[in-house]
Amino acid sequence: MSATAPVRPVLPPDIAARKGGVPLVVLTAYTTPMARLVDAHCDIALVGDSVGMVLHGMPSTLGVTLEMMILHGRAVVRGCQKAMPVIDMPFGSYEESPQQAYRNAARLIAETGAPAVKLEGGQHMAETIAFLTARGVPVMAHVGLTPQAVNTLGGYKVVGRDDEAEKVMADARACESAGAFSIVLEKVPVGLAGRITAALRIPTIGIGAGADCDGQVLVIDDMLGMFTAFRPKFVKRYADLGAAADQAIAAYAEEVRTRAFPGPEHGFADQVKS
Ligand code: KIV
After folding, report:
1. Are 122 and 170 in contact (CB under 8 A)?
2. Catalytic residue (one of 120, 127, 186, 254)
3. pLDDT of the chain along its 274 residues, tens only?
4. Which of 42, 85, 49, 79 is nearest to 238 (CA)?
5. Residue 15 and residue 203 in contact, taking contact as beta carbons nearer than 8 Å
6. For ligand 1, atom 5, which residue shows the shortest CA distance?
7. How close is the Cα of 273 to the center of ligand 1, in Å?
8. Is 186 a catalytic residue?
9. pTM of the predicted model, to two decimals?
């Protein structure tokens, strides 16, 4: 018998029960090694469709496919023992009908092993969220700035200032009523995010939405400083890995060109016995 108790993975009801408690810690992850690092410290590893921009150099998330999400989702699930993987439903995989959403959400869950999906949209997605949750698919909702709607929104702007505030509140309430177990608030003004958090029974997870949310999420490559030029206001950099990688690659290139690398210690002798 093992002396250590098995690790119990976090599941959607555990996340829902964290409302108003210790803030939920969420980071994106797209690969197994990063998922392992995230798993050690976070409650949720979000396989965001930001993977298209972060790892594949796409100009937006609109070109991300279900197959990409399944591939990265599997990699992240392999790296998580405790943290809950949540997989983003990509653009075009759920908006047409609740049936289309169910078919594709079921693939994401069955083919990756993740217990939950995330989708963007408020009141207009409520019927779909209800359809999915009634059929065993836990849904994390996402309102405010919804990057898949970048073309209708006209850019990656703050959503919910002035007259827009009531619509964002109504979107969040509709997702909760439809059965979402938590909700991402992206680039929503701080005061509004606080009011939504106070009004809902499910946890809010903010990104660029202030400190009053029930949790926070960031794109992992942003907070690790992987992109030297990209510095959104809402991202705090906890490391400068982009600059460190640049220095390391430059040093390697210099040493290869000058034959300083490889040194004798990196080679193998011709004979085993001397
Ligand atoms: O795709 C993503 O990474 C996201 C988070 C930024 C919330 O949706």
Report:
1. yes
2. 186
3. 456 777 788 999 999 999 999 999 999 999 999 999 999 999 999 999 999 999 999 999 999 999 999 999 999 999 999 999 999 999 999 999 999 999 999 999 999 999 999 999 999 999 999 999 999 999 999 999 999 999 999 999 999 999 999 999 999 999 999 999 999 999 999 999 999 999 999 999 999 999 999 999 999 999 999 987 878 899 999 999 999 999 999 999 999 999 999 999 999 999 987 6
4. 42
5. yes
6. 48
7. 57
8. yes
9. 0.95
Domain ranges of the chain: 12-240
3-class DSSP assignment, residue 224: coil
Q: How far is the CA of 227 from the centre of ligand 1 (A)?
A: 16
> Could you tell me the CATH superfamily of domain 12-240?
Phosphoenolpyruvate-binding domains (3.20.20.60)
119, 118, 110: which is closest to 77 by C-alpha?
110
Task: Report the 10 Å Cβ neighbour count for 111.
Answer: 17
Cα–Cα distances in angstroms (integers) from residue 253 to residues 247, 249, 264, 267, in the given order: 10, 6, 18, 18
Torsion sign (Cα): 153, 183, 178, 50: positive
Ligand 1 interacting residues, C-beta cut-off 6 A: 28, 46, 48-50, 88, 142, 184, 186, 207, 217, 219
Please tell me the total number of residues recorded for the chain in this structure. 274
Minimal-distance CA residue to ligand 1 atom 2: 48
Bridge partners, residue 100, by sequence:
none
Per-residue buried b or exposed e for 20-40, using 16+ beta carbons within 10 Å of the residue's own CB: eeebbbbbbbbbeebbbbbbe
